[in-house]
Structure formats: structure tokens, C-alpha cells
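Our collaborator T.R. sent over the components below with a one-line note: 'Predict the complex.' Nothing else. No constraints on interfaces, no templates requested, no preferences about which chain binds where. So this is a plain run: every listed entity goes in together, and whatever single assembly comes back becomes the starting point for the next discussion.
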Amino acid sequence: MQGSPHILIVDDHREIRDLVARALAKENFRVSAAADGRAMRKVLSDSRIDLILLDLMLPGEDGLALCRSLRAESNIPIIMLTAKGEEVDRVIGLEMGADDYLPKPFGSRELVARIKAVLRRMPGGAAAAPARAKRYRFDRWALDTGARELLRDDGVTVPLSTGEYDLLIALVERPQRVLSRDQLLDLARGRSANAIDRSIDTQVSRLRKKLERDPGDPKIIKTVWGGGYVFAPDVGAE
Amino acid sequence: MQGSPHILIVDDHREIRDLVARALAKENFRVSAAADGRAMRKVLSDSRIDLILLDLMLPGEDGLALCRSLRAESNIPIIMLTAKGEEVDRVIGLEMGADDYLPKPFGSRELVARIKAVLRRMPGGAAAAPARAKRYRFDRWALDTGARELLRDDGVTVPLSTGEYDLLIALVERPQRVLSRDQLLDLARGRSANAIDRSIDTQVSRLRKKLERDPGDPKIIKTVWGGGYVFAPDVGAE
DNA sequence: CCGCGCCCGACACACTTTGTCACAAAAAAC
DNA sequence: GTTTTTTGTGACAAAGTGTGTCGGGCGCGG
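Returned assembly:
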């Protein structure tokens, strides 16, 4: 994990979201918020989240169901929040795969302490989430996430640096979506952008040089003027 | 065991985890904590644990079940902790394969004494009852954990030093996962890293020289810039 | 159609991280 | 106790990444 951890708070009460967001921002965490399961999934697909604070009681799909479905596809650490301070909930929460449990009302000091404790015991971090090796196909390329290799259809392996690989993964997993530099920086490097950050531009340039037929007229990573970049080709996953 | 022993406390009560962690840290043990079976397995797969303190009563999978499943795949010493001071539990616990048994409440002095006692009778013990010999296969290699030998598919045996072997095992058992130098040092050497520790780098370099076709362009042990190393190939166990 | 301001591509350079070698320290073998 | 092997450390080279600059392209308003 390079930058400061990115925490997602999922709670339907605006006051709680704001409160938690302020408390965490003060501790130098990056914070996003979502009011329900749908918003949560949106945030998860738009940015790289290191830890989720999940309210047990939510409108629509409730916290436990969300927790279970999150666990099915990733291993982002989860801390459950709940109003009912009953032991039963704690047990249920931990069984669903939550990493810790915090009864409301809680002080910001305690919240921060729990978050740090949970993050500390996640050595690989959330970045290690896709435990399963995949192979993506696009254009004339195949990207193997297990071996971290980029293969051209003529069989040649093109070496990618770590940064190029991370950026390419972020793009390939979100094809045909405009991604801002800020998002890409978050997804690929786990940090947020400084005012005059051009590092993504440079990295895109280097990537294009490796995978475009004509880097001067890119067909794969296209520029959206004033917006960011789009991964243009269709991606087939295996 | 090279560095200070690494103890894992598994208990769902945070107060107990903290208490025990403090007591052990004071005695110069390294300590990790887990709230349930899932967290326990995560810690076990991320670091090298010398002894487990296991609470009998846990949410989800309970202590006895965990103890039994641990015994099935390793022989890490286990001390069972339990609130019920009944003799029955002791018998059951020891039958399940626990190495000792400590009724709550216990003083930190007694805890430390028991731990040291169990660890003292390990050195021969752990080596004397090694986990079943396995044979890992990857790329064009086979790694035999019984004979501690590395065999190339043309039949040649490549000699590995103890350190090279330990490092390779740490990597082979966690394929396609990014492992930090700190983790590798813990897994392979049982100690934690100093600020400017480069010993893992040299050891990786030596390993590559032995098992990569082209050590200058490694396909097996890959570098993650700013992150650590990844064991890239698929590993088949036998 | 033209000029202006802003955004992006490319390159050079500084800085950080990693590879590797030689050598010393430590451990193991003899 | 000596020799041999292995492991850690320091130094330097190589690679990867981010920042600054320059110049060209894009959108916008006239």
C-alpha cells in the first residue's frame, strides 16, 4: 500500500457518514462514502478501497447480505458497524466474514484504532484481492495476471514494468469507461493526485509505446480531452 | 528458530488479545493476533508462526475444530486457552493435539512460562515430526521437501543452500502473490527486517542464478517495484 | 478563420529502488 | 583449530518512476 489507505463508509445516515469522514480525514485517511449497496458497488468499481466500514442496518440489501457477497468476490477487510450492541450480532458479523465489529455509538478514537489494527494485519493489502489468476484478451494481446505477463498473439512476451502492469490492469478491468487521472492513480498506485501530477500521462505514454502499433495514433488507450483515458478494445476474460 | 519466536493469539475478545500481546511483547516475542479462524488462517499464510495461543470458545468454527484442522496440516505448537476450568476440556484439548492447556483467568507470568516450556521442547520436536514430505512442481522444476532437493526435468539435481531452500519454499507455497521483503524475511528466516536490509535481494539474486533460464530476465521470481517479489509460475503439489 | 488559453505527448533529468559483485562475518564441516 | 561453505553488508551500476519543460494540438470565443 503506497499512499494513505482509502476507506469506504457505507451507512444510510448522512450525519454518520459525515462524522466518520471527518474523523478519518483528520487521521489522513482518504475517505469515500456510500448510502446503500448500489452506491457501494459503484465506489468499489471506481476506486481502490482498502477497507470498508459497513453498517449492519441498511435500506434495501442489508449489511450482512452485502458482507457475504463482498466476501465472495474479494477480501477487502470489513468492519461492521451496528446500533444493537448485542453479542449475537457480533457473532453473526464475524461469521459472515467481517474482520471486526464496532457497536454504535463509538468514539472516533476507537474507530481509528480498530481500523489501524485491521489494516495492520492485512499484509498484502487489498491490492492482493484477486487471488485467482486470470487471463484477459484484447486486440492482439493477452494479459496474464498470474505471471504478470503481456503476450502478443505471435507468442512474444513483452516485458512490463510494475507500474505499467498495474496501470494496464486498472484499464483492462474497466474497458470502455472514461477514467480520470485521479482514478487511475488511485487504482494503479493507491494514492491520490497532487495538483500538478503528470505521472499517469508519462506512464500511459510508456505503455502505448509498448502495445500500440502506432503510438502516435493510439487505438487501444485513447485520450479523452479534459477527462482522462479510455481503454477502447473489447476485453475477453478467461 | 532464528529471531524471537513469533506467537499468534487467536481470541475473539479484543481486550484479551491486547493484554496478551502486550505481555508477550514485553518478553520480546513477536506477536500477531486474530479474532477468528478465518483471520488465523490469513496470518498463518502470511507469516511464519512458532506457536499458537488458541481460545477454546470462538465464533464460527470453534477452537477445538481449528485445533484439529491445524494438526492435520502442520505441527505448530498450540496452547489452548479456555474460560471453563474443567478437567474435561483439558483432556479433549490434549486429545485434539494441543501441546498445553491454560485455564482463564491466567497471569501473564504463567502464560509466558508455559510458552517458554512448550517452545523449549520443540526444537527437536518440530524437526522430528515434520509435515509429510511434499513435492512441488513448477516450470521445469520439482522441489522435494523431504530430501530438500531441487530437481530439473532433465534429472539433474541442483544443490540449494539452507537459506535458498527456505526462501524458495516460502515463495513456492504462495505462488502469484506479492510478498514484501519483510514477509519473506519472516517466512524464510523467522526474523523481521531492519531498515536497510538487503539480504533478501541478494538471496533472490542467488536463487535466480540457479533456477532461471536467463537470470537477467527472470520468469519465475519476478520483482514488484516498491513491493517485493512474486513467484510467477503455477505450482502443482503432489 | 484566427488567436488565445489550456491540456496533452514526449523527452530529459533527478531521484528512488533494485541487481549484482566483492568481501567480511558467521556458520558449518572437517 | 582450520578449512570450506554460506550468509549479510557495502558499493556501485542499472532499471523504474515522477517532475519539469517545451512544443504541439484541442476547444472556445471572437
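Summary for T.R.: Residues 198, 201-202, 204-205, 208, 215-216, 223, 225-226 of chain A lie near DNA strand C (CB under 10 Å from a C1').
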